[in-house]
Amino acid sequence: xxxxxxxxxxxxxxxxxxxxxxxxxxxxxxxxxxxxxxxxxxxxxxxxxxxxxxxxxxxxxxxxxxxxxxxxxxxxxxxxxxxxxxxxxxxxxxxxxxxxxxxxxxxxxxxxxxxxxxxxxxxxxxxxxxxxxx
Length: 134
Description:
Blueprint: H1 2-37, E1 40-48, E2 59-67, H2 85-91, E3 98-103, E4 106-111, H3 112-118, E5 120-125, E6 128-133
Antiparallel strand pairs: 1-2, 3-4, 5-6
């Protein structure tokens, strides 16, 4: 019987510790997030004119702009690898959209689901350097 009482006491300490850690995490989450992600904040002031956004008079509004991703936070695709129609049929659904580029008889298709993750592809199509963006 004494074993069950001892385990109950230890589990009680563990539960209390976890609750305290949870409360601290909730209160410190903005500071933790900012330090881990290295967020930058910049304050800007915008003048609103009468009638804009429901305001009846002139007013100044201060806003914080938070930069989540730093420079080059989303990497570009610099040397894209293309597949033939057969392999593309196996990798993609028939309803998926692509952005097509044709220059000097050279044809390329860039899947939008890939462009949504990388936003830019640096490529050469038909001997012409291109930047494909989405």
